[in-house]
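Team,

Forwarding the record for the chain on the shared tracking sheet. I've put the sequence and predicted structure together so nobody has to dig through attachments.
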Amino acid sequence: MKRLKTLLHSFNRDQDGTVIIEAVLMLPLMIWVGLGMYAYWDGYQTTNTSQKGAYVIADLVSRQNEPMSRSDLEGLNQVMNFMLSTGETAKLRVTSIGRKISHDDGDHEGENDDEHEHAPAPAPVADDAEFEVLWSKSPYLAMPALTTADLAAYSNRIPMMAEGDTVIMVETEVGFTPVFDVGLDPLTIKDLIVTRPRFLPQVCYHDCDEHNGHEHDDD
């Protein structure tokens, strides 16, 4: 009996093989945590790069001092793809939006001049009906072109503008699929940047005819 107690006591104190057992139990969990951290980091990096790319394209478009062409937009799309990781491609849409010019001539006969002589100019009003799409293009037809009727969905993104002013709206979409299945679903990363032209009243597509509404051979 005493010998049996001694053997049991020795077995209880024996720690040989403990590290191997712990490794067998913990290694799968450590691998899963490592893969999960990498997958979430990759998603964050793609989101960050997509946002930076959208800002870069918006800035490049706003600095144009000549009418843009299809090849210009395709080149910008390639710049966006270059900034992303290998295997990821971006959809791009560039839209020029303007505020309509009111045709209300006001007081033709000069009546009430004294009343309105010192009146402050009215502030711009953010009315959806006052905005119109001058042109909207997507390289490789990856996204449908916007129309004036579509602007109602962007009313909270279009800034206040004076009559005749224009802005450039750049939209990008990047599909992201996690490299490992760790509970993160595939998603589409969308960015929207609105900026004003820097050097010209309007960034045109091919030419600056009325609303740039004419069709061109290389649309």
